[in-house]
Amino acid sequence: SFSLTLIDALDTLLILGNVSEFQRVVSVLQEGVDFDIDVNASVFETNIRVVGGLLSAHLLSKKAGVEVEVGWPCSGPLLRMAEEAARKLLPAFQTPTGMPYGTVNLLHGVNPGETPVTCTAGIGTFIVEFATLSHLTGDPVFEDVARKALKALWKNRSDIGLVGNHIDVLTAKWVAQDAGIGAGVDSYFEYLVKGAILLQDKELMSMFLEYNKAIKNYTKFDDWYLWVQMYKGTVSMPVFQSLEAYWPGLQSLIGDVDNAMRTFLNYYTVWKQFGGLPEFYNIPQGYTVDKREGYPLRPELIESAMYLYRATRDPTLLELGRDAVESIEKISKVDCGFATIKDLRDHRLDNRMESFFLAETVKYLYLLFDPDNFIHNDGSVFDVVLTPYGECVLNAGGYIFNTEAHPIDPAALHCCRKRKEEQWEVEDLMREFYSLKKNKKFTLKRAADHGEGESAKDPEDASSEKGGETRNSKKSSHSLLSCPSQSFNSKLAVLGQVFLDN
């Protein structure tokens, strides 16, 4: 439990600027965390907190001044720990459908009497961590099982395009048929979008966009999202759940900012009513739901505020941040931390603090108010690192947060595997600044228009000669290196490599 809390809060320390404490915790973790224990663990929670936390800390270690081993980021103690933890979860995916059990014993695998009923989010929330792990280690098994689980959910959606809340992973029969965007479903939709962005995967994005149409058609009422029966689309629960507050942030990631702001402002009125978001809020009655009046300091509304503020700079979003800081300080602060609010009606406290408060809530609040944080890097500053597979770029920005707010550097996915069809695109360009010292940090100004000099090579040219070999490139619908009006950020994103002017 202590190790989990350390892992879950680790990258928060660096983002908040506490480098020395980050280094100290990494040194503690590098002594080893024992996963060979006879414990039944949530497959979902172990992935988002332990695997995600270790991957993020591994990729941020060099930035934090931790001495890394030769071959980093393709090797390292935290990466090996993440891989070990993920391998403990793999037995859960050995089902006829490819959808995982919800719980696995870390020592013995899936218990013989384990229930086959798993929530949708517990099936569809692996692609970010598992694809990252596959790209860094070179073992495709992790990404493969994550993709198979995602596609199984897609295959079993209803005729009107919705998924339910719980499904039998052996028979693919829906056990709970409530469809919505909240608890039990939420991070499945989140990972279709974030997986699509991380992997530049059109199939994952097209899945989400199809779901988004069905969600708008059947669950959306006046900028609220209700729960409906997945086959009929009839309303089953007219409630707003606090976990649904991630949705405006997700909408902003796909560019649907106007709808995102309208939904966000609805949710913000609930916050202002209670000084926090109750777990359930009855929309017609405008009040809390019995036995769901608590607020465990969840991050989702603050997370959406951060994303939307990056997109709009609307000061209303900073007001939410201020309100959140004041509420949490006034209502929940105790001598040894910040306590869960048991009942928002009278602000009674519970004797617990969830680790996601440190991993997510504090982090998103800080990032909302810190526009110069390295997480918000626009690509103008970056690090070039030498790996066994050649040079690659890290810390250029564009971080993808997993659902526990652990940032993954998307450029790192290109560091540990050499693909012949990609090599020619970077070799000549990288040679121009090959004299730069290993790991040197430097700043670039916005690139001038291409068309002058060799670095403006068109990737749609059929081939490039090197060592007597001809390498063919895959044509894409966009010629990323040749468009004169293209912004610097887009050029930076090509295959995780940076392209400079003459």
Automatic annotation (TrEMBL):
<dbReference type="Pfam" id="PF01532">
    <property type="entry name" value="Glyco_hydro_47"/>
</dbReference>
<dbReference type="GO" id="GO:1904380">
    <property type="term" value="P:endoplasmic reticulum mannose trimming"/>
</dbReference>
<dbReference type="InterPro" id="IPR012341">
    <property type="entry name" value="6hp_glycosidase-like_sf"/>
</dbReference>
<feature type="active site">
    <location>
        <position position="186"/>
    </location>
</feature>
<dbReference type="GO" id="GO:1904154">
    <property type="term" value="P:positive regulation of retrograde protein transport, ER to cytosol"/>
</dbReference>
<dbReference type="GO" id="GO:0004571">
    <property type="term" value="F:mannosyl-oligosaccharide 1,2-alpha-mannosidase activity"/>
</dbReference>
<keyword id="KW-0326">Glycosidase</keyword>
<feature type="active site" description="Proton donor">
    <location>
        <position position="45"/>
    </location>
</feature>
<keyword id="KW-0106">Calcium</keyword>
<dbReference type="GO" id="GO:0006986">
    <property type="term" value="P:response to unfolded protein"/>
</dbReference>
<keyword id="KW-0325">Glycoprotein</keyword>
<dbReference type="GO" id="GO:0005509">
    <property type="term" value="F:calcium ion binding"/>
</dbReference>
<comment type="function">
    <text>Involved in the endoplasmic reticulum-associated degradation (ERAD) pathway that targets misfolded glycoproteins for degradation in an N-glycan-dependent manner. May initiate ERAD by promoting the first mannose trimming step of ERAD substrates, from Man9GlcNAc2 to Man8GlcNAc2. Seems to recognize and bind to exposed hydrophobic regions in target proteins.</text>
</comment>
<feature type="compositionally biased region" description="Basic and acidic residues">
    <location>
        <begin position="447"/>
        <end position="472"/>
    </location>
</feature>
<keyword id="KW-0834">Unfolded protein response</keyword>
<dbReference type="InterPro" id="IPR001382">
    <property type="entry name" value="Glyco_hydro_47"/>
</dbReference>
<dbReference type="GO" id="GO:0044322">
    <property type="term" value="C:endoplasmic reticulum quality control compartment"/>
</dbReference>
<keyword id="KW-0479">Metal-binding</keyword>
<comment type="similarity">
    <text>Belongs to the glycosyl hydrolase 47 family.</text>
</comment>
<feature type="region of interest" description="Disordered">
    <location>
        <begin position="447"/>
        <end position="484"/>
    </location>
</feature>
<feature type="active site" description="Proton donor">
    <location>
        <position position="279"/>
    </location>
</feature>
<protein>
    <recommendedName>
        <fullName>alpha-1,2-Mannosidase</fullName>
        <ecNumber>3.2.1.-</ecNumber>
    </recommendedName>
</protein>
<dbReference type="InterPro" id="IPR036026">
    <property type="entry name" value="Seven-hairpin_glycosidases"/>
</dbReference>
<feature type="active site">
    <location>
        <position position="300"/>
    </location>
</feature>
<keyword id="KW-0256">Endoplasmic reticulum</keyword>
<dbReference type="InterPro" id="IPR044674">
    <property type="entry name" value="EDEM1/2/3"/>
</dbReference>
<feature type="binding site">
    <location>
        <position position="403"/>
    </location>
    <ligand>
        <name>Ca(2+)</name>
    </ligand>
</feature>
<dbReference type="GO" id="GO:0005975">
    <property type="term" value="P:carbohydrate metabolic process"/>
</dbReference>
<dbReference type="GO" id="GO:0016020">
    <property type="term" value="C:membrane"/>
</dbReference>
<keyword id="KW-0378">Hydrolase</keyword>
